[in-house]
Amino acid sequence: MESAYTPSQVAEYLSYIGLPPSFQPSSNPTLNLDYLTALFTHHITAIPYDNLSIHYSPAHAIPLDPQSLFSKIVSARRGRGGYCMETSILFNHMLRALGFDAYLTGVRIRPRVDGVPQGESYTGWVHLVNIVTVPDSEVKYAVDVGFGGDGMTVPMPLVNGLVHHNSLGTQEIRFVREFIPNQRFRGEGAHKMWVYQVRNGKDKNWVSFFAFQDQFEFFEEDFGNLNWYTSQSPESHQTWTPLAIRFLRGVGEDGRARVVGKVMMVKGVIKRNLTGKTELVKACTTEEERVEALRELFGIHLTGEEVVSIRGRQAELVG
Questions:
Q1: pTM (global) more than 0.85
Q2: What is the mean pLDDT of residues 197-206?
């Protein structure tokens, strides 16, 4: 399937994320890792992760058709992002419109306790990640624009055990190729999974966050199933936990954009990480405080209709 976006929509998106002129289609850039990295960095620092449409919208639902996503995230100019499926689907169509070979696959996540993955089991498919092949290379890259604060900040080649610095402090990330505990069939023909792991320093233990199989492409029909459970089921933490994460953009020594920090909101608690260490910024206790904090700290502007739509719901802050 071709990209859902027209050249004028692609141009509007690239302008919105602030991609430098050297990477604009008019400059005929080479579709290489530098281009993919620049596109990824500008996307995650311009478009936040947020699940606010579940909580702050009259329908309390997440449309996934590409045109609705474009209108909400790009055209509206209100600083809105989306949760994993929204941002990943938008990014997938942009990648294909620009000439990259990209497809989406489903991801299983380890449940968290107090923000840290716990136990051996993984969930069902509740997340999406883009798998991208750079022209003239057989290496596949995982590019995840929608995992939030513990997500990758660089495109990651699917190479077993290769360690990457994750922009802030001493945090490192890698993929390992292995069976996850849920897998009972491990005989001939069984497929190991790519497991995304994070550690906050070379002296720390690796923690597994999510797993996927790059050989299995997910289609639009699959997105609907994932989206309904994740955004509507009371078993999904998304339905009772408002979230927002914005990566902050700076300039590296090479003059290119890089991630220099992040601001994160879980329910009403807002934290910031600029040096690898997390500090408390604000603990909101009312809706007025949270809406104002979203505007000031995340650049997210909610409409009056969206603001009042959370009233009487489980996620409302009532003081």
A1: yes
A2: 95
